[in-house]
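Deliverable D2.4 — example input (structure tokens):
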């Protein structure tokens, strides 16, 4: 499902999807801090998943209704 882009960025809630690769969580958290500083966005949920695995239903449920968008990140 594709949703329309928000007209404003201020105060949006962020979900982070980390894939367990080295430095992935650190990179995602750095991006979240920058978005908070620039737009007042807040990181609401951090989901950890295995590298090549899709999100599990429980992980999707964690994100649903709690975030306005999610950033999936990789590391190395």
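Example output (designed residues):
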């Amino acid at each position: 499902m594709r949703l329309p882009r928000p007209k404003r960025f201020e105060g949006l809630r962020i979900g982070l999807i980390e894939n367990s690769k080295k430095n992935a969580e650190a990179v995602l958290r750095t991006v979240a801090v920058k978005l908070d500083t620039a737009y007042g966005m807040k990181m609401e949920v951090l989901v950890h998943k295995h590298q090549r695995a899709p999100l599990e239903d429980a992980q999707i449920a964690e994100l649903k209704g709690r975030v306005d968008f999610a950033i999936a990140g990789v590391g190395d």
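The beta strands are 13-18, 42-48, 69-73.
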